[in-house]
Amino acid sequence: MAWFKRKDKGILTPTEAKKEAPDGLWYKTPSGKIIHTRELKNNAYVSPEDGYHVRIGSKEYFELLFDNNKFTEMNADMVSADPLGFTDSKPYPERLKATQEKTGLKDAVRTAYGKMNGLDINIACMDFSFIGGSMGSVVGEKIARAIEYSIKNDVPLLIISKSGGARMMEASLSLMQLAKTSARLAQLSQTNTPYISLLTDPTTGGITASFAMLGDFNIAEPGALIGFAGPRVIRETIGKDLPKGFQSAEFVLDHGFLDFIVDRRDLKSRLTKLLKMIRK
């Protein structure tokens, strides 16, 4: 019976001393592939087994694109006001403050300039973690100022979109940002300074209806959701069933609305090659 009993009880580890794996150590993709978070970071946050592009924010994109992660951020302390006195489940200023504390961000976009493989680059990158990457007055103003910087300094502009659309808490003020950013981009185009728009998952609503689709080159990451309205709204409007995957980057590319799709692991080199070609 000794086979079924542990004689030396001294080697048992007490339950309270057993260590659990820390949260966030592993990442599981939608297809079920599991990858260590360290390996995921080293692979540009792309699952090597199935190519799934994990959603990331401005911090990660800046690390991937700026040489040695060195850049100068613009208008970093700009924050939204509450001119409409919006109140839903909680007052808008309270929601802003809670989101700022949770994410460490001031709003849903960060803008910065620096070097990318030795080339000057100006990047505006949206953060979906901040109220769904929604565009309010601050987002529109920061992007408009980033465009102005590119106009004055002849520095190529890259806007990385990741948004659910306009911010309902700012209503018409949010919608005005569509016109403001589009007008500034029209001014940029007159200077022949390149503008590249990178659409990531998801890019929807007013963002798609404004600056996201106005690039000299419109590119996207694999599998990104790109569209204006949701599938249900479109289905009810046209009264027809929609083709499978009709709002994926691949579908949008096939129908002529994108120039190409780029794997995030190749993003920096592809952008560098594209800018060198344009500048020549």
Q: How is this structure best described in words?
A:
- The structure is a single chain.
- This protein has 280 residues and is α/β, with parallel strands linked by helices.
- It has two domains: 54 residues, no CATH class; 224 residues, Alpha-Beta Complex (2-enoyl-CoA Hydratase, Chain A, domain 1).
- Helix content is 32%, strand content 17%.
- The chain contains eight helices and nine strands.
- The strands form two sheets. A seven-stranded mixed beta sheet has the order 3-4-5-6-7-8-9, sandwiched between helices. A two-stranded antiparallel sheet has the order 1-2.
- Helix 4 packs parallel to helix 5.
- The longest helix has 19 residues.
- The protein is globular, with a radius of gyration of 22 Å.
- The termini are far apart.
- About 2% of the residues have low confidence.
In short:
The protein has helices at 37-42, 58-65, 92-103, 137-153, 171-189, 231-238, 249-254, 267-279; strands spanning 26-28, 34-36, 71-74, 109-116, 119-126, 157-163, 195-203, 217-220, 260-261.
Which structural traits does this protein have?
seven-stranded mixed sheet, 280 residues, 17% strand, two-stranded antiparallel ribbon, 2-enoyl-CoA Hydratase, Chain A, domain 1, single chain
